[in-house]
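Exercise 4. Each item below gives a protein and its sequence. For each, produce the structure-token representation.

Item: PTS cellobiose transporter subunit IIA (Orenia metallireducens).
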Amino acid sequence: MENINLDKTAFQITLHGGNAKDLANDALVAAKKGDYEQAENLLAEADKEFNLGHEVQSKAMQKDDKDNRIVPTLLLVHAKDHLMAAKTEIKLIKELIELHKKLDK
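Answer:
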């Protein structure tokens, strides 16, 4: 079984989580300006970035079998936390955008 570079994995997860959060926040800015089409496009990109981070995380977890246990580092734990925070922000921003749409009617 191939070894994985945990630091590289952690940085990839953090990168995609950060990109997802940035895109979601950009979507909220667009919605506040009334540009809901742009907001939806940015949210779709945020979801893609989150999914890329989740894919990296899932691949690492698949390598964690009983013969080759992954010992989590603080950096890896931080990365996973960062990714889950991104998911939470995306969900909340989607709700905020829906509220903006209702207020604009």
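Check: Residues 74-104 form the longest helix (31 residues).
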